[in-house]
Amino acid sequence: MNAVMFKTPLAIGIAVAGLALSGAASADTHGMEQRLAELEARIAAAEQRAADAEQRATLAETRAESGARPNADEVEERLARVERQASGEEGFSFNAYARSGLLLGEDRKSIPGGPYVTPAGPLGGAVGRLGNEGDTYVEGIFNYRMRYDNGARAHYRMMLADSVSTSNDWTADESNLNVRQVYAEFSELPSFTGVFENASIWAGKRFDRDNFDIHWIDSDFVFLAGTGAGIYDMQLADDWTSNLSLYGRSFSGFDLIGSDDPNAGSTDSLILTSNNYVGNWQFMVSGLSAADNDERDIGAGQTAADSGFHTMVAYHGDSFFGLGEGNFKAALIHGQGLGAEAKVLGADGALTDDAQATRLGLYGTTYLAPTWRVAPSLLAETSRDRYVQGDEFTWAGLNVRLANELTENFEMQYEASYQFMDLDQGEGGNAVRGDFGKFTIAPTFKPQVGGFWQRPEIRLFASYTDWSEALNGYGGSFGEEGFTGGQWSFGVQTEVWF
Q1: What pTM does this model have?
Q2: Helix%, strand%, coil% for the chain, nearest 5
């Protein structure tokens, strides 16, 4: 450091002398002073770099003399932890789904919409959702994952959701804000051995991990959810894993037989489910019970179900129905009693003791050409003695979503939907038979196109919708003023998930 300090005055003197000689010929005093100041600043910076280097060298010598060296295992563990946190395997992460749009009729007024807009909608009969949604729905999912020294893992999740149909910016009065999930799940527990070696356990309020749906019509094949506990991935054989769960749901605010107090009834619906996977096959069996639900008043001569069962056989294909690259899923469902609500298990307490329902669902995805993709789906159900002895409801819907990827950021989407309905509410109720159709064109912008699940996207759309006139007399939205079929609707929508 002394050598550096000694050289500094000498260097300055030489520089000053040089500047003085050249300045005598042509430079003014102000210019020379400015150059001298710049030179001094550069010399000061060089001195600081030298001092820093000397300090680092001294620190390194001290560490070497004391024998203190970085621990390779500690460095590797710190690096691995950073990588796990960056990938979301550990630490905090956030996921979201959201959609928001404006749906207008030919008179520039809002009209009813959504995939459950038809008379079959309350029975689970969904139709295509493209160009048919005017709501705002958002899900925010907060995750925290931990890994312990013994290898065990813990996952905590909380999910908030809200849904409104108004277009206003302030919607507190219409808000349906809800905590939809809150649970903890433990996995890779060292004390779990044998068939439980790879199993995970959970408890709390949640959607079942293995629910699966047809996104283009916003309908699950089956939706298992509520509050309870379960265990996933018990290895019962080389190619056989099994899940076991107990979910609770609540029935409240219903009339009791012989009671003068309306909405006095309350009970719990319990769903015990065994979900089994053998190769590509899935076999699901559920038993349902709701103590005292048979005391619910659902009309003279009718008895509400207090038990039931639900079964599903599904196949998860790794090709497009064996015809080419892609994937498909197919499921056949049957339920009786409380299990006759075939989609949302344990959600309907008004089913009769004799209710039964059978549902078929399938969909697939594939590319027809390098820039053309298609996703067809079929969903159908027949049920009888559902709410009244002798009622019978049959519906079937076909949907096709088609997209043409034109540039890196733009594609044209098309959707065609058809639904047939034969709905008979039984003695004293309405009975209609008819069909519904919708065709949508939607220019769509994306940050990057490619694939069926690439989001976010912003869509403009125009939809033509028509249905049988007879359906206007059944009830629901059909038949309202300005909503009788044979009409266009227009709008814009964004859809986001990550």
Answers
A1: 0.82
A2: 20, 50, 30
